[in-house]
Amino acid sequence: MMEEIIKHKFFWDLYASIYDENRRHEEYLRNTNLNILKTYFRPGQTLIEIGCGTGIEAKEMIKHGCKVVLTDVSFEMLKVAKTKVGSNAQVINLPAEYIDSFKIKFDGAYSSFGVINCMTNVSSFFQKLHSILKPGSLFIASFINRWYWGDFLFFLFGITNYLKKRLNGWGHITLNGKEYDVIARFYSLNDIKRFSKSYFVIKKVYALPFLLPPAYLKPQERLPEKLFKLLQKLENLINYRFPFNYLGERIIVIFERI
């Protein structure tokens, strides 16, 4: 486990200085994710963010009125995050695998955009997270889904080759076209249910996205604005309904701590 954590630390340290610029095409997904976080978490709650990256979500949740403790495996990511949150939040260099290092109980937790995909033992993570959350508190996580319907379509038309990685259940992470010795694992919603069932119950599931193209295809740049907005409206009507919520490119899951 430690060897893989070190590899992830190296990769995310390397990525930190250009992360915000490279992920601008995800803004439409981040807005959806933030709206969900703000819907379920109340001002005044003390939250822990697991894998905060450059602090994009934390900054907004602090504005929402929450107290946020930011954690990440990457010291360089945390340096960027610190410039966003300043003295308004505590910033701690801590891998998700050691989240039980805290001796206090939080009102809630969240982990956005695939931190779970970078873990080797997700069941152990849920057990450790359970130990630092208050009974009945929420954990909101978004992760890359193993079963995304669009990959079959995109593969058929030669647009992307992500289908093979998802069917294999894992793949190496790439940055600016270069593949690194860092692995991301792809989990289905049923996998996540199995990993978490002893510690959390699932309250609601959203696709992120189902109907809109995924962020790596940069739909806001490629699609006419009117078509993009229409798809976005339709997305909001179906992204929490079965079976669409099981088949998004990413999935947001609302967990309640048992």
TrEMBL record:
It comes from Kryptobacter tengchongensis. GO terms for molecular function: S-adenosylmethionine-dependent methyltransferase activity. Pfam families: Methyltransf_11. Residues 49-140 form the Methyltransferase type domain. GO terms for biological process: methylation. SUPFAM superfamilies: S-adenosyl-L-methionine-dependent methyltransferases (SSF53335). Keywords: Methyltransferase, Transferase. CDD domains: AdoMet_MTases. It comes from the Bacteria. This is Methyltransferase domain-containing protein.
